[in-house]
Write a structure and sequence with these properties.
Layout: H1 12-24, H2 29-36, H3 41-49, H4 53-61, E1 73-81, E2 85-92, E3 98-104, H5 106-109, H6 112-127, E4 136-142, E5 145-151, E6 156-157, H7 158-163, H8 170-189, E7 192-193, E8 202-204, E9 210-212, E10 219-220, H9 240-243, H10 251-267, H11 277-286, H12 291-294, H13 301-310, H14 322-333
Helix pairs in contact: 2-3, 8-10, 8-14, 10-13
Amino acid sequence: MPPMGSASAHPQADQEFLAALVHRGWLGREQARTVLEAATLAEGLQAAVGWDSKQQSWLRRTRGMQTPEIPGYRIGERLGAGGTAEVWAAQREKDFARVALKIQLPALARDPIATQRFVEESKVLQSLELPGVVRCFRAFRFLGLCILELERVAGRTLEEELADGRAYAEREALAIVLQVARTLEGLRQAGVVHRDLKPGNLMITADGKVKLIDLGFAGRGADVKAAAGTTLGTPAYLAPEQARGDSDLDARADIYSLGATLYHLVFGRLPFEASNDEEMLRKQVLAGLDGSALKGGRVSPALHYFLEKMMAKDREVRYPTPAALALDLEAHLAR
């Protein structure tokens, strides 16, 4: 007979449940080992993380929230997943409204800094009333996870479009960038710097409307200043000052990221390519745009100008505000 407290002393179903909890990030490996020392899995989980029988039953039924159940909602298909959260289609039971639920990943719920960013995102979203930003109706916690109830936007991200080989003509790409520039100006006037603008955070609807769907790294005022030497955002789209870890970011960092997005839309590839994040960050600081790609008739002089100005290494050379960029784009597209 195996000794009490060993892994083999627990039923197979309990061992599989515990493995699922570790895989989903609810427990660390050391916590799991502690749980296995208990006479029963239920006792071990109660002692290690404080889950009562109801919470444990919920997690078993949902396989560690792989198939979420949230009180007050009917959950539909998974709409997307990122490094911090999963987004699920949902319907409110009280009024049948179609919404989206952004559910924090369990592993991130154990990280106080990541959780604080999630909370800040909800505060920023709820305070904004911009047509180009997805609305946040409420924020709440369930089983220790932060959850945002968001406006359901029907469409696809630009990242999904690009992954499917979608090619964007210059005017189409510039029209998209114009919409985003107007949204960034609204953020700027609200004192918000996005810090992680990229195709994956931009949803385009069937009628061509573009919405910013993720403000996970956005912040206001002092909140925008990261600790010295730290880098937030996605390396392939970061402004040089972000790549260096500078703390005094403003809307010009978002303009650079929008320029990198424009480049990706038109050329179907990133402005810079690298084998790892460190190399990418170095290129964002030091490397210039590929002149052969911008010249020789491949793109118009106007697009060349927009890319060079938006992605200037020196932020003083970039457009001073998204509004200034939008004015130039409007004038060009009106021709």
